[in-house]
Design goal:
The complex is a heterodimer of chains A (381) and B (257). Chain A is an all-alpha fold. Chain A is 70% helix and 2% strand. Chain A has a domain at 18-278. The radius of gyration of chain A is 22 Å and the shape is globular. The chains are: A mainly alpha (381), B alpha/beta (257).
Chain lengths: 381, 257
Amino acid sequence: MSAATLRKIEIGAIAVIALFLVVVLPLLNSHGVVSNFTINLWGKYLCYALLAISVDLLWGYTGLLSLGQALFFSLGGYMMGMYLMRMIGDLGQYKLPIPDFLVFLGWSELPWFWKPFDSFGFAALMIFLLPGVVAFVFGFLAFRSRIKGVYFSILTQALTYGASLMFFRNDMLMGGNNGFTDYKFILGHDIRDPATMRGLYVVTAVMLVLVFLGCRWLAQTKLGLVQRAIRDGENRVLFSGYAAAHFKLFVFVVASLIAAIGGALYVPQVGIINPSEMTPDKSLEAVVWVAVGGRGTLVGPIIGAISVNALKSWATRAYPDAWLFILGGLFIVVVLLLPGGMVSLPGRIAAWWKGRSRRSVDETTDAAAASEKPVVTTGTP
Amino acid sequence: MNVGPEKTNFILTVEDVNKTFDGFKAITNLNFYLNRGELRTVIGPNGAGKSTFFDLITGRTKPDTGKIEFGWDIDLVGMNEYEINRLGIGRKFQTPSVYIDHTVFENLLLSLKGPRGVFRTLFHRTTSEQRDRIDELLKLIRLDAKRDLRAGQLAHGEKQWLEIGMLLAQEPQLLLVDEPAAGMTDEETKRTGELLISLSEKHSIVVVEHDMTFVKQIARDGKVTVLHQGTVLCEGKFDEVQANEQVRQVYLGRGKH
């Protein structure tokens, strides 16, 4: 097959999957074929897929293993959560026009930074602004000091852990360990109404498609080339006149925004956000999704996020105590036996098949080894 | 050899440079002057400070004391790698450092002289002039048939050439080349030597090398600098250097040439 035909097949496959996720699945839901539970579950999976793309943009494409992407996901979620809390109005337990937890903490009036969140527009702005600014400041300091490899991973992990400790505190006025929950309305619609849920799902699916296409475009620009060049040879990049730190900062901010979109759409669909969403293990889980799906590709993280979470949904019911062992085992198996992840399976099978049929024709089969060579994986393990 | 008035025409001036790593004196009172258009070969035993010397010029490490200047009056001390590169100083590493996942073409595209900013790169469109320039380079480094191959699939010698091609794509005034013949076959080594000599017509070049046959080939009757314990032991034509008693003791006397 020529490269052009392959490209056509690829674009066709993307279009079919996008159409299925954005149009077919919601239609089946409105006609009662797909349950509300399922559509909600898939909405959640697709939010995770956004988080996974965010991880992969850094890890798979730039060689930066960030263990703190759940922070940006959660920050996006918290910004959406603040808006949703305001939309509860006086329908809370205390029947007062401020969120219940504030009443519980002895507040009778809204703290100043809560006030603008009555506006959805402001909340939407903050969904991008807060994670973007945090990523910019952290990234600026980290990349300027040339922190890389495992040190970068540890630092990002510390960042998200520190943030979770901060959000756990009640005097942060962000709901403490309970976070935000009991939402009632979003943009005037009842949040528990199946039609609203379906709407949220569709927005998520559309966002995922847009992010996917955006990243695909990014990967083929010259910036995308520089990005992967940093992963494969940062010295060469520096000694070719590129300020590698600026490129890393750009990608880090873009990745944080993608995670934030995922988080913002996640919160109204699961109905809760609390600081446990930004603990390091949440970020680690996202890294496993990417590894399982196939890093350094765009389809990989989406497949990984959906399949690992589908497995989780099943396993936490069937074998609740074993889930973490299953997750860890999965990671080890993939790293050892399938470094290219699930997306590398078809290629591997094809190469194996080719090798086998050649073997049956000819006894001398040295050539098969060449085509069976796995994709070169680079970056920080 | 150009002496006299040409002396003021240095492209690189390194004066009284010292560099210590945790008490180890890597470079001691180093003085090095390179004329514009000169091809200089630097030899020296392991640990003589050859790589540190390149690191100091290219901004990888900063000297403790001393002066490093490019051209008339550009002070390189305090600048970082990419700023120094943008001035027109290209560096080839000892182990071939190419982008293994990119095609040969893409490797050269990334190296072509041009804007290096994040947003200029994001909205970059490759022009036909740039394509022609890349094709020209591909011919020069004899990789035109492997244009669309991933660089990781090239043989070792080809990677070395690709990296030289990437340096040339930057159109530098000064080329710093670290052991270009390492790991090459005799035939490849010879051709690399020819390539460097042909390049010296347009560029100033410093080559660090171990292989004495290769040094002899490229030095011809140009200057050879011998580094030893971070300082210049002696400088002169290849034959003079080879005949020098001190040099024989510290380096050539080991019988490894």
